[in-house]
Design brief:
There is one protein chain. This protein is mainly α. The protein has helices at residues 4-33, 37-63, 83-110, 114-143, 148-158, 173-179. The protein is elongated and about 55 Å long. It has a single domain, classed as Ferritin. The chain binds MU-OXO-diiron. Residues 17, 20, 50, 53, 94, 97, 130 line the site of MU-OXO-diiron (FEO).
Length: 180
């Protein structure tokens, strides 16, 4: 069972994960428009990751007998200066999400909600990986700044990224995870 405060915070986090999906979808759209299909692929894979993060929390709230409440999703930026700008903003956003997950953990500890603490550990580990991935790509982009050939090589590499999270939640997230 979730306290009222815990439930409200988890519902807020579902919204933040949905916004993350929306933000990466916007970056994917602009990458496509720039002819960078590998970047477009990378951000679309990231979109699926974020939908999974949102749906995993959605299902956890339901399993705990809570009511999911969906709020409006904010509009992401319409234009990014460059792919480096996209990844810089991606890292900043992920750092914001990390803080938000840490705050959720603080609430779970204060509420003596052990089940939610265990549930959130998965997100804490995931955030370390997300920030690490972004830092790696930012470093690569800084190395090739101003060299279109280098950007094309990174584009080819990012085009290799495949979706490895569940994407069909019609039978629930746990069922989808079982199919992995
Ligand atoms: Fe769901 Fe990228 O944090």
């Amino acid at each position: 069972m979730l306290s009222e405060k815990m439930l409200a915070e988890l519902n807020e986090q579902i919204n933040k994960e949905m916004y993350s999906a929306y933000l990466y979808m916007a970056m994917s759209a602009q990458s496509k428009d720039m002819g960078l299909n590998g970047f477009a692929n990378w951000f679309m894979v990231q979109f699926h990751e974020e939908m999974y993060h949102a749906m995993k929390m959605y299902e956890y709230v339901q399993q705990q007998g809570g009511r999911v409440q969906l709020k409006a999703i904010a509009q992401p930026p319409l234009e990014f200066e460059s792919v480096l700008d996209m990844f810089t903003k991606t890292l900043e956003h992920e750092q914001f999400v990390t803080k938000s997950i840490n705050n959720l953990m603080e609430v779970a500890i204060a509420e003596k909600d052990h089940a939610t603490q265990i549930f959130l550990q998965w997100y804490i580990t995931e955030q370390v990986e997300e920030e690490d991935n972004d830092n790696e790509i930012i470093n690569q982009l800084k190395m090739v700044e101003g060299h279109p050939h280098g950007i094309m090589m990174i584009d080819r590499e990012l085009g290799q990224r495949a979706v490895n999270v569940p994407t069909d939640f019609s039978k629930g997230v746990e069922a989808a995870e079982g199919d992995e």
